[in-house]
Automatic annotation (TrEMBL):
GO terms for molecular function: ATP binding; metal ion binding; SUMO activating enzyme activity; transferase activity. The keyword Translocase does not apply. This is SUMO-activating enzyme subunit. GO terms for cellular component: cytoplasm; SUMO activating enzyme complex. It comes from Cimex lectularius. ATP binds at residues 23-28, 47, 55-58, 71, 116-121. The lineage of its organism: Eukaryota, Metazoa, Ecdysozoa, Arthropoda, Hexapoda. Residues 586-597 have a biased composition (Acidic residues).
């Protein structure tokens, strides 16, 4: 262990300082091993996930016999073999649970995050800020990674900067006019489900048999669905590879070409013929520098992989019980081969560069493949910073970034020049967090306001909302459930009203200014303006006008609406990946293999 190279004071702190590790996945496994080997003896672990087969190649604390068991509990038993003197408490639970409140976080000297989703990371960030406990954030994405410390008043917090949003793609683009490989990958996953998985008529891979308004020029045009489903058609034809190939990549494409309006400003697709596949380049199979899944298949190889795996999937599906179906899994070789080959064939048809199976797996699984060595490097940096924080050396802990390649200065682990200060306009750690919600107050109900704005956009799991001491929404659902279907206007919320909003679980509060606006067709139901500095005078005026209304005067309010401020609004939608859970109603994941950097 590392105790011999540390001074007596630090060794004492290691033994006595309680540390919380959130997440026992890729980074979490490496981190827990590092902590007990370094001499930390008072550790708690929280993780909601169970162990899956796909975890075993990089989360080394787990073995095959552990599949289906709690990550936190198995990780505890595994690391105790490294240092039996450690006192470790494992929780198979969601860190967003009500029992893990501010008082719980105050018990620790240090919190180490090893998570992979925005909701849980944001919650831990807020808990640590409220509790005044230093937090070490970490994450990896393929060959890249990062480590940063978060200390209230000294550094920026996790939510000082906007996080990337998940992308949503229109179904008509997927079916008719793909322009990026991700469109083809999504289409290929749809195809898998249409042929072998749970069917969904809304994600049919067939082109629209009567087109949308863009194609027909008729805004009232309706989309006609095929009379025979893709699966029934495939069954009728015995899942014959040549017939299915010809339908998907020849006949359907020729049909799309009859829709002239689609191709007025787009390059036309080129159908493929089963017996006339053009030559394309591929990576050499013998190249030692190319990993198997990172080889670029030729077009003919894609056809062969498509044919072979289609028949394998047919054979597998025929062995299922009546009414059962296959569930697509990125870690099933046959599933992934089928999707990758179909995605590349469709990409070629639409003049989109083909990708490797490795790249397609990243998109199809909605993940960035985890690299064990990246997790190990980042976990080492987290441990290093944990020691410095216990010694009070905060200034020696700048954010560091692991790069895929060596920089021009010969560095692969690149530090910032110093600690990054808090963002004064941050809605979480700023002095006066304040936002403006622009919406139609006569249409938005309290229920929609709570679910769409407070819980989804602002990540507040248990919000309380008051209007001049009048409770509109309570964290106790039964207290205000009678308000659910009432509009904000019916609740007395007028243009310019200022709501006091706080979260019972997160000790997090803000001022929310309501601006009424009749939304135009095509606009979202609401949007949020985050920078209120330019609207201060208008807000104060709107607040005074609102007080007049509450005194019984029914007059129009001035709309607080600034074009420049609206252009700066930041979307804060949070995406949560789906995994096996201890409880089905908890959306959080507490492992770390993929983190938006």
């Amino acid at each position: 262990m590392a105790l011999t190279c540390l001074n007596e004071e630090t060794r004492t702190k290691l033994k006595e300082s309680p540390v919380l590790v959130v997440g026992a996945g890729g980074i979490g496994c490496e981190l827990l091993k590092n902590l007990v080997m370094t001499g930390f003896e008072n550790i708690e672990i929280i993780d909601l996930d169970t162990i899956e087969v796909s975890n075993l190649n990089r989360q080394f604390l787990f073995q095959k016999q552990h599949v289906g068991q709690s990550k936190a509990k198995v990780a505890k038993e595994s690391v105790l073999r490294f240092n039996p003197a450690s006192k470790i408490v494992a929780h198979h639970a969601s860190v967003i649970g009500p029992e893990y409140n501010v008082n719980y976080f105050k018990r620790f000297k240090l919190v180490l995050n090893a998570l992979d989703n925005l909701a849980a990371r944001g919650h831990v960030n807020r808990m640590c800020l409220a509790a005044g406990v230093p937090l070490v954030e970490s994450g990896t994405a393929g060959y890249s990674g990062q480590v940063e410390i978060i200390i209230k008043g000294l550094t920026k917090c996790y939510e000082c900067e906007p996080k990337p949003q998940p992308k949503v793609y229109a179904s008509c683009t997927i079916r008719n006019t793909p322009s990026e490989h991700i469109h083809c990958t999504i289409w290929a996953k749809y195809l898998f489900n249409q042929l072998f998985g749970e069917e969904d008529a809304d994600v049919d891979v067939s082109p629209d048999t009567v087109t949308d308004p863009e194609i027909s020029g008729d805004p009232n045009a309706a989309i006609k669905k095929p009379t025979t489903s893709t699966r029934n058609w495939a069954k009728q034809n015995g899942y014959e590879p040549e017939k299915i190939f010809s339908k998907l990549f020849t006949e359907d494409i020729k049909y799309l070409l009859t829709m002239d309006k689609l191709w007025e400003k787009r390059r036309k697709p080129e159908p493929l013929e089963w017996g006339n596949i053009p030559e394309t380049s591929s990576s050499s199979p013998s190249s030692t520098s190319v990993i198997k899944d990172q080889r670029q298949w030729s077009l003919k190889e894609c056809v062969e992989v498509f044919s072979d795996n289609l028949l394998k999937l047919k054979e597998i599906s025929e062995k299922l019980d009546p009414g059962s179906y296959l569930i697509w899994d990125k870690d099933e070789e046959v599933h992934m081969n089928f999707v990758a080959s179909c995605a590349n064939l469709r990409a070629h048809v639409f003049h989109i560069p083909m990708k490797t199976k490795f790249d397609i797996k990243s998109m199809a699984g909605n993940i960035i493949p985890a690299i064990a060595t990246s997790n190990a490097v980042i976990a080492g940096m987290v441990t290093h910073y944990a020691l410095k924080i216990l010694e009070g050396r905060f200034q020696d802990c700048p954010s560091v970034y692991l790069r895929q390649g060596v920089t021009a200065r010969g560095m692969q682990i690149v530090p910032e020049k110093g600690l990054q200060p808090p963002n004064p306009k941050c809605r979480v750690c700023g002095d006066t967090p304040q936002l403006t919600l622009v919406t139609n107050l006569a249409k938005m109900t309290c229920k929609e306001f709570e679910s769409s704005v407070l819980k989804r956009k602002l990540n507040m799991p248990a919000p309380d909302v008051c209007l001049y001491n009048k409770v509109i929404i309570s964290s106790d659902p039964e207290e205000t459930e009678q308000n659910n279907e009432k509009t904000l206007k019916e609740m007395g919320v007028a243009d310019g009203a200022i709501l006091d909003v706080d979260d019972f679980l997160q000790t997090y509060s803000l001022k929310l200014i309501l601006t009424h606006r009749e939304m135009k067709p095509g606009e979202p139901d609401f949007f949020i303006v985050g920078d209120m500095s330019e609207l201060k005078k208008e807000i104060e005026k709107a607040s005074q006008e609102y007080k007049k209304v509450t005194n019984g005067k029914d007059e129009d309010m001035e709309i607080v609406d600034d074009k420049e401020s609206r252009s700066k609004r930041k979307s804060e939608t949070i995406s949560v990946p789906a995994k096996k859970r201890k409880t089905e109603d908890s959306p959080e994941s507490d492992s770390d293999d993929v983190v938006p950097l």
